[in-house]
Write a structure and sequence with these properties.
The structure holds 3 protein chains of 3 kinds. By secondary structure, chain A is mainly α. Helices cover 62% and strands 4% of the residues of chain A. Chain A is built from 18 helices and 4 strands. In chain A, a hairpin with a 2-residue loop joins strand 2 and strand 3. Among the domains of chain B are: 72 residues; 217 residues, MetI-like (MetI-like fold, Orthogonal Bundle). Chain C folds into 2 domains: 424 residues, YVTN repeat-like/Quinoprotein amine dehydrogenase (Methylamine Dehydrogenase, Chain H, 7 Propeller), CATH 2.130.10.10; 121 residues. Chain C is 12% helix and 36% strand. The chains are: A mainly alpha, B mainly alpha, C mainly beta. The interface between A and C is large, with 68 and 75 residues.
């Protein structure tokens, strides 16, 4: 176990391909590569023609992972976005460049979501991308389970128990070797994820819609943590900055494993940024609209959506990740992107 | 511009770009084959090709090409590094895109607001603030995002102005402006006239200005600084003393004030105007005068005070009794007045019918008049409680110890100064606000009076 | 072997004692933070000192800064300040506080101690924008100097440790003003005379907080190295009357530490860590990276150079719980020791029982002493629960330990975040010897989380309909409204819109290429030398040697008058064309400044040195001239051209729409 941990810490310390910012602004470490990438990747969905859409989406996601994990030498992560937004606002007039550094990531994502549609979750987010890639390995099994209405499955239960066992073993090792601070709260998020998996083993149908409300709680918790000045780091924190953070490595491993059991499990139940993007998406120019005249209720869109946001043409905007799979899957073209200025 | 000019224009722009880059390369001011320049040239060619075939919005395309050419030729002088230059170019294209969309798809006023907003941001961030041109890019992008709706633009401007002009009280200004905007935008009335909205906006603005000092202190302290206060026994005892004495005073006022109010409202007697004026007297008297007056009457060395202490062993000055006395004195008018008004609103027919049905006069009072008047009595009691808890001037004279909360603030200010008193004041403000809101909500549980529609809720 | 070690230790410490007692933030330039008591006196005993413990503690502020140690009149004394705004002078032998000085702002960094006119003086800066100099033995005030003029909207200034080198006191200071009309975020490096406190020169180094300067002598010239918190490390040659920038180096991330200098190695090297987690070794002459070693997490604080068995070793602690010892020549890891918590302090290198040792403080509230050669833990002390909760790590520079060595004994001095200052002798009984730390806290957290989920969240999710949606939107709104509270200084808002005149004092690199041929150039300066005193504005003028007058503009608001005379003023003048011009411009002042009269030493600037940037140097025409008027900078023509660029997209939008309208 110690050897494993040493290997992990070595890997986390060398994960980036760069030693420092590619070009820092005005004698600082602030670079705009993150913002540039986020902006470009967010614009692509509305620019790409429909023919190659899913392929470009896959390319965007891969590019997102490559850029934010390997090339941008320090990226501000998900959980810190509220904290960073407040911090950035406070730094205006104190150190303008640092204000830009802290404001830039949340502001860019929110601004592009408002102008070009809430495409962050479906096209850019590295956590979501990793879950989708891993989940696609078990894609057929997921589809079969959904069509059957989520019956009790031993395979699923076994997988969940296996994940729980890995979690407790890892926690046992970590608790003996490190002192944890409040910033390592991703451990608790992971614990709740494991418990959600177990709850859903028995009652997927009644609990799925209800557990999605936990995202609100998640959002509240990080907002209150920002209010109290605490730093809470997100599951992929070790990838965004070059630090060895065992809590976030554990969290990423569990999230990836859990996405084998339920597609995009983190995005569905726990991601706080999902709430923010959903709220912003209401004000966005681009929306998905279903033309009821064209919809034949074939259920084709239900099958492709990995978060079950679409049901026979009716889109739940609070769950929709704007991945546009349903737009491409509809045989009659009933679902369209509408831009409304 | 008719379509036949499109192709020549595209060709001209590409030619200018190529020529310019070559000229700069020859003059030694730029490297034509540097990565950034190659990317710019490439994207220009791609856009040019799309426009040549007639695909895409021509205005946007030609504008983007023009911007790319401008960046390629002059970009190095503006920013040294290509990443910032790239971000600048993208924001420029975003502004172009938004501007065209806003001017074409929306009524003129949206475009005017957008343009004025852009120039205002320019003035603030480029001309006034130091070292703020990267921030300008961010805020311009924010303006573009909000250009579609007046509401969003209003909130955006509230945020921007609070953090640029409103320093050092940025958070407070921002919060208050947000509240103001929310109230004004969601206002619905039956008349739906702009006059009421204007009154609302102006009145709220005035109200927030008046409450601004409260906002500063309330939001100016960290939670960190307030926790240790709760552990300080002196502070805790001051809070408890205030709560206790105010409650006791209000209870005494209720016991003695409600019957008085009932009597005065139901009876006619000689000297009624004088009595009504006397009930109001404590409001008019200044606080320190009230303190002196009470001290003169009930002080330990005065006849009455000495009598009191000989008979009952109680002193009035420097004790809880003295505090309660002062609080009762100053808070009485609030309760009595309010109770009187609400008793007057209960028609006497109710009580007469009760008596006709067999109730005793006490029963008619206690079970008919009082419940119907309860909301008014309750709000009067709340006001009296607040006035009693906040009494300072009289207490300073008659009973500076045991400390109540206002006296504790004064003592702290005198000993440690303005800044150190902040946490205690913040705590008290929070305390008062919480009490007030709780009481407001509780009052809704009481029966509404006959004929009241609860409009104020 | 031991004798050799002793001799080398004695030699090193004598070398240190020959110059100022504690010239930099961590003692000498190698940041060893230890002081030798020679000859050794009676052994020191354990002492806990509680400062003004009831002072309100602000989040993000260090409770105690690093101590500065010195032998004053035979007594081993420690000087340290902290969040209680007081500098305490503690006598460790008699275990008493000899004197203390209350300032108007927090003291966030260590003081420095130097010898001036036969007595030892303590210098420190506090966030009330002032540098203090007090006698180390008695606490008597020698001088104070306010470095940043106050305004009502000034934000919290930041003043790290000064640096005393070669009879000059270098102070870095940073102040920001958020009010729109006075907005500035300038960081300045000032040079003061340690005897009188007079300002010798002042340059603007950049924008953003600066860390404590470090200095050393390279090739016979004095160099000062200043790291900005944003990551830019700059080196200045300060041998001349005006500092000249030699090189600058961009660190990969935020830097909170000062560089540790190894001036004896070849090439002389600087060691600096950043929040990126890598420790850089930088060539102090050329400013190029020699090597860098990656650690697992942030490096907050200084590194330290010690010499063990004849070679130079760099010690640094990182937030990945480990202490690293690296060979200073090539960065090879000699040993790496994990401690019980994140290591946030700078190391302190000293001799204990004739072996080299290092001491670190870490976030498990322990002071750990390690053997410097092998890295094994020799002692650990528990320093108490902190008064703050661990929320602002990585943002604040916390205090590090320092050590007194006497003979084979050593005593650690550390101001811990529990609010006490500890003086801990390493040998003998000690009440703070560390107990086994418990790591069970994580299970408690996990258990609580489990209960919260099962008992609260699950039922709430089941029964509460529409837990999201409009409810959360409104609450989000309310939270956005309330914002994050910040400590606010009372003051007025400035509502006037007239911008302030251009600020003075920036230096640029000589000979940097000018992308634009300069049309004209503006020279800004400030006259405030001790000998400058005029009755009226008309008594100062700028002239070319040909006799032509250059119109001099003076900022009326920045004129400082004393007893009816003007003693300081800001001026600027513009030169129309400087290409090829080599005439110096001479500034004269006095009661009679007609062309032929050169009364008192003026300032001349040679405008031909470089196409874009100029550095002004004063002339000393008479032997007793005090050429300490501070003049600097040039604003170039870039400023007038750039702002219009940002209007381009909007202009383009209008143009396109107009064309479209015309076309249809």
């Amino acid at each position: 176990m110690n050897a494993f941990e040493n290997w992990l810490s070595g890997m986390a310390s060398h994960i980036k391909l760069v030693d420092q910012a590619l070009t820092g602004m005005e004698g600082s470490y602030v670079e705009l590569l993150t913002v540039l990438s986020l902006g470009l990747l967010a614009v692509l969905p509305v620019v790409i023609p429909a023919r190659h859409r899913q392929l470009s989406r896959w390319a965007c996601q891969v590019a997102g992972i490559l850029i934010f994990v390997f090339i941008v030498y320090t990226c501000l992560g998900v959980f810190g976005m509220i904290n960073n937004f407040f911090r950035g606002l406070g730094e205006i007039g104190h150190e303008n460049i640092i204000a830009l550094y802290f404001l830039s990531v949340p502001a860019t994502i929110l601004i592009t979501s408002m102008i070009f549609g809430p495409t962050f979750c479906g096209w850019v987010c590295p956590t979501g991308a990793v879950q989708e890639f891993v989940g696609s390995l078990a894609g057929k099994w997921h589809a079969a389970r959904r069509r059957a209405g989520y019956p009790f499955s031993w395979k699923y239960l076994g997988l969940s128990l296996g994940i729980a066992a890995v979690f407790f073993a890892w926690i046992g090792h970590l608790s003996a070797t490190r002192i944890f601070f409040v910033e390592d709260a991703t451990v608790y998020w992971t614990e709740i994820l494991v418990m959600i998996l177990l709850v859903l083993a028995w009652g997927m149908k009644p609990w799925d819609a209800r557990l999605r409300r936990l995202r609100v709680v998640s959002f509240w918790v990080i907002t209150l943590a920002a209010y109290a000045g605490m730093r809470v780091t997100s599951p992929v924190h070790f990838g965004f900055s070059k630090v060895y953070d065992p809590a976030s490595i554990l969290a990423t491993a569990i999230v990836v494993a859990a996405s084998l059991a339920i597609p995009r499990v983190w995005c569905r139940y726990l991601c706080p940024w999902r709430e923010a993007i959903a709220w912003v998406g209401k004000f966005s120019t681009c929306r998905l609209e279903t033309d009821p005249a064209k919809c034949s209720a074939c259920g084709g869109c239900d099958d492709v959506c990995s978060v079950e946001a679409v049901s026979q043409g009716v889109i739940d905007t609070r769950e929709c990740h704007f991945c546009l799979k349903c737009v491409d899957a509809c045989p009659h073209g009933a679902i369209q992107i509408k831009e409304k200025w | 511009m008719s379509a036949r000019w499109h192709r020549p224009l595209v060709a001209a722009v590409i030619a200018v770009h190529a020529g310019g880059i070559v000229a700069l390369g020859v003059m030694g001011l730029a490297q034509p084959f540097e990565l950034f320049n190659v990317i710019l040239m490439g994207s220009n060619l791609v856009i040019g090709a799309l426009l040549w075939r007639g695909k895409g919005d021509f205005d946007l395309g030609i504008g983007a090409m023009f911007l790319i050419v401008a960046h390629a030729l002059m970009g190095q002088r503006i920013v040294e590094d290509p990443l910032t230059g790239g971000a600048l170019l993208l924001v420029n294209i975003l502004v172009l895109y938004t501007g065209l969309k806003v001017f074409k798809c929306l009524p003129m006023r949206y475009g005017a607001v957008f343009a004025c907003g852009y120039f205002a941001l320019y003035v603030i961030f480029i001309l006034f603030l130091q070292n703020a041109s990267p921030l300008f890019l961010l805020f311009v992008a924010g303006l573009c995002a909000c250009a579609r709706r007046f509401r969003m633009t209003a909130y955006f401007w509230a945020l921007t102005l609070a953090f640029t002009f409103g320093q050092p009280y940025a958070w407070q200004t921002c919060a208050l402006m947000f509240l103001l905007l929310t109230a004004v935008f969601s206002a619905r009335g039956e008349l739906a006239a702009p006059l009421a909205l204007v009154f609302l906006a102006a009145g709220l603005a005035w109200l927030f200005l008046v409450l601004f000092p409260v906002a500063i202190v309330l939001f100016g302290e960290d939670a960190h600084n307030i926790w240790p206060l709760l552990a300080d026994p002196r502070v805790v005892s001051a809070l408890l003393t205030t709560a206790l004495t105010a409650t006791v005073s209000t209870a005494v006022l209720l016991v003695f004030g409600i019957p008085l109010a009932y009597a005065v409202s139901r009876l006619r007697f000689q000297g009624k105007p004088l009595v009504l004026a006397l009930i109001d007297l404590p409001i008019i008297i200044p606080q320190s005068v009230a303190g002196i007056v009470l001290l003169r009457a009930f002080g330990r060395q005065q006849p009455l005070g000495e009598l009191l202490s000989r008979c009952t062993g109680l002193h009035a000055d420097g004790t809880i009794l003295g505090i309660c006395l002062a609080q009762i004195f100053v808070a009485a008018p609030f309760l009595i007045k309010s109770a009187m008004i609400s008793f007057e609103n209960v028609s006497e027919d109710m009580e007469m019918s009760a008596c006709a049905l067999g109730a005793t006069p006490w029963g008619a009072f206690w079970r008919v008049a009082v419940p119907l008047a309860s909301r008014g009595i309750f709000s009067g009691a709340v006001l009296a409680w607040a006035r009693a808890a906040g009494e300072f001037g009289a207490l300073l004279l008659i009973a500076p110890t045991p400390e109540t909360a206002p006296v504790a603030v004064w003592n702290r200010f005198n000993s440690v100064g303005l800044i150190e008193t902040g946490p205690l004041v913040s705590l008290l403000l929070l305390f008062s606000l919480v009490m007030f809101f709780l009481l407001q909500f509780t009052s809704r549980l009481l029966p509404a009076q006959f004929g009241q529609t609860g409009r104020l809720a | 072997m031991r004798a050799l070690l002793l001799l080398s230790a004695a030699f090193l410490s004598l070398h240190a004692a020959a110059s100022d007692a504690w010239p930099g933030q961590r003692g000498d330039e190698r940041c060893r933070a230890s002081e030798r008591i020679d000859p050794p006196g009676p052994p020191l005993t354990e002492w806990h000192f509680r400062g003004r413990g009831d002072r309100r503690y602000e989040q993000g502020v260090a409770v105690w800064a690093s101590p500065a140690l010195a032998i004053v009149e035979g007594k081993p004394m420690a000087f340290l300040g902290g969040c209680d705004q007081t500098l305490h002078a503690l006598d460790l032998a008699s275990q008493k506080q000899i004197w203390s000085k209350v300032c108007n702002g927090i003291i966030s960094d260590a003081p420095v101690i130097g010898e001036v006119k036969g007595r030892q003086v303590v210098y420190w800066g506090s966030s009330d924008r002032t540098v203090y100099a007090h006698d180390a033995g008695t606490g008597e005030r020698v001088w104070t100097r306010e470095l940043i003029p106050p305004t009502s909207t000034l934000g919290e200034p930041w003043m790290p440790s000064p640096l005393l080198m070669d009879h000059v006191l270098y102070v870095a200071c940073f102040a920001f003003d958020k009010a729109l009309a006075r907005n500035e975020q300038n960081a300045r490096l000032c040079a003061l005379d340690p005897e009188t406190g007079d300002l010798k020169w002042k340059i603007t180094v950049g924008q953003g907080p600066l860390n404590a300067p470090a200095g050393c002598r390279i090739d016979g010239r004095n160099h000062v190295f200043v790291a900005a918190r944003k990551g830019l490390l700059r080196a200045f040659d300060v041998s001349g009357p005006v500092p000249v920038e030699r090189w600058s180096f961009q660190m990969p991330h935020e830097v909170m530490a000062s560089p540790a200098v190894d001036a004896r190695s070849e090439p002389p090297a600087l060691f600096l860590g950043s929040k990126f987690g890598d420790l850089m070794a930088i060539d102090a002459r050329a400013g190029k990276r020699l090597w860098h070693r990656m650690t697992g997490n942030w490096i907050d604080n200084n590194a330290c150079v010690g010499s063990v068995e004849g070679r130079s070793v760099v010690y640094v602690g990182s937030h990945d719980y480990c202490v690293y010892a690296l060979d200073s020549a090539n960065g090879g890891v000699l040993w790496k020791r994990p401690l019980g918590g994140e290591v946030y302090s700078a190391p302190c290198f000293f001799q204990f029982e004739n072996r080299p040792a290092v001491a670190f403080a870490s976030m498990d509230n322990r002071l750990t002493v390690l053997d410097a050669a092998t890295g094994s833990v020799t002692a650990a002390f528990f320093t108490g629960e902190p008064v703050w909760d661990k929320v602002s790590k990585g943002e604040t520079l916390w205090g590090s330990p320092a050590a007194f060595e006497e003979g084979a004994r050593a005593t650690l001095v550390h101001g811990s975040s529990s609010g006490s200052v500890y003086s801990l002798p390493l040998s003998g009984p000690n009440s703070l010897r560390a107990q086994v730390r418990t790591t069970g806290g994580l299970w408690v957290g996990i258990g609580v989380c489990f209960l919260v989920f099962v008992c609260i969240l699950l039922p709430a999710a089941w029964f509460w309909p529409g837990m999201g949606g409009r409810f959360s939107a409104r609450l989000l709104f309310c939270l956005v409204l309330s914002g994050v509270p910040a400590v606010v200084r009372a003051g007025e808002s400035a509502f006037s819109l007239t911008p302030a005149p251009p600020e003075v004092f920036e230096t640029y690199r000589e000979g940097a290429p000018a992308p634009l041929p300069p049309k004209g150039v503006t020279v800004l300066g400030r006259l405030d030398s001790p000998s400058f005193s005029i009755g009226d504005i008309s008594q100062v003028a700028a002239r070319l040697p040909s006799g032509k007058t250059v119109p001099l503009m003076v900022d009326e608001r920045r004129i400082l008058r004393e007893f009816g005379k003007i003693v300081s003023l800001d001026f600027w003048f513009a030169l129309p064309d400087v290409s090829g011009a080599s005439e110096p411009v001479v500034l004269r002042w006095g009661t009679d400044i007609s062309a032929g009269n050169k009364l008192v030493p003026g300032i001349s600037c040679d405008v031909s040195q470089s196409a874009r940037y100029r550095i002004l140097s004063p002339i000393s025409s008479s032997p007793d001239a005090e050429a300490s008027a501070s003049v600097g900078v040039i604003a170039d023509t870039k400023a007038s051209f750039i702002p219009l660029w940002y209007l381009l997209p909007m202009v383009l939008v209008f143009a396109l729409l107009t064309l479209r309208k015309l076309g249809t």
